[in-house]
Amino acid sequence: MLIFVQYYLSGRLSQHLLWLASLAGVVGLLAARSFVALAPVVGVLAVLANPHVRQDIPKYFRNGAAMRAAALVGFLLLSGVYTSEWPTWRHEVFRSLPWLGVPLAFTLAVPLTSWQRLTVGALFVLSTSAVGLATLIQYLIDPTSANEAIRIGQNMQAITGVFHISFGVILALAFFWGLLLRHHPLANVWLRAAFLGAAAAAVLTLHILAYRTGLLVLYIGLLTYAGWLLTRKHVALGVGLLLLLGLGPWLAYHTLESVRQRTDATIWDVEQYTLGHDINNYSLAQRLAAIETARTIISQHWLVGVAPADTHTAMLDQYAWKDFGLRPANRIQVHNQYLKALMGGGLVGLALWLAVLFWPLVQPLTRRNPYIRFFVIIQATVMMVADVLSLQIGLNLFVFGYGFLIVAAESKSKEKSAEIASPKLAP
């Protein structure tokens, strides 16, 4: 009993629970969905296990990243005043709880050590590459059938069942974070080699399986990095990377059947919409119709939107006026997180969301952090082509990354500022 009390008073119980929650979050994203649901609960337990939690409570309210996340929940609660979809509203409120629980854990639990954070990053990168390679093997067993499915617009999900859009984003994140973690001071030579191999496996999987969204965020991330190199006067590296970015897609198109099928199918898909043909069997054309439908709704409810819980019903009602020849089963929701925020919350809701997403790039500390930069750039890009927060895995991926990277970085910055402002007196 005394040992447990000492364990608790030292703060290690809180720290280890936060570590466990972080590891469970990674496993849950890639394989066991139940772990994703349990991770925030364990994170809250880590907060309660902090022996100094009462004194630390003000840290949560001083953390801007945590407060911006809480503002999203606050707006959702306020939208209950004008929502007409009460069951959906109650469900959305329940789904939004990680916006409170995860930032709470990374501000009030005892912070992870550098080594513990490295293990979480290593688990994410190495596990993602392992799932990617296993999925790649599944593809190579029968590439002809897989390529035919790609030709008609279908995507191969991860072998663990992860949705292809989310898995493409995870693979892109694993690529960038794997390269960054190679330079971690605590990574030994074997771990650095493993990170390099994992990054290579991630980019190879993205290309061979022709994950359209994953490739988009990958190349946008690389293009941003090339621009950063040029602004830092690394002209040779920047220009070289730009040339590779131009050469890479060309080589992939001419060497990989899956990429060629995906490209040709994409062009044909869009043409069906622009030419006014039947678009019931074309996903991109349906997305373009959904965007036009959403724009009509936004023009009518531009200030506070129709309420976040009412967007689905509003889209169906608008389709009743103009259905683009779509059968009811093909009248999809808008695949754009910014339009979804604007439709549900108007300019107010969009402003809150943009503050959560882009504020880290405004602050010097978080802007200089390459892990955060790539996280924000990749998430901001994928949200142009998918309403990722509508899917539980997309929501969990963003909230976990937001807490682990952005909330934790701001919390650490506040602690350092406090130490500088009130240095301890020497005895």
What distinguishing features does this structure have?
427 residues, mainly alpha, 3 domains, globular
What do you see in this structure?
The protein has 427 residues and is mainly alpha-helical. It has three domains: 1-55; 63-105 and 278-415, no CATH class; 116-269, no CATH class. The protein is 75% helix and 0% strand. The protein is globular.
What's the total number of strands? 0
Segments where pLDDT lies below 50 for 5+ residues? Answer: none
Strand share of the residues? under 5%
Main sheet makeup: none
How large, in whole angstroms, is the Cα Rg? Answer: 23 Å
Spatial separation of the terminal alpha carbons: 34 Å
SSE arrangement, N to C: HHHHHHHHHHHHHHHHHHHH
How many H/I helices? 20
> Number of domains in the coordinates?
3
Helix content: over 70%
In terms of structural class, how would the helical and strand content be classed? Answer: mainly alpha
What does the average pLDDT come to?
A: 90
Shape, per Cα inertia axes: globular
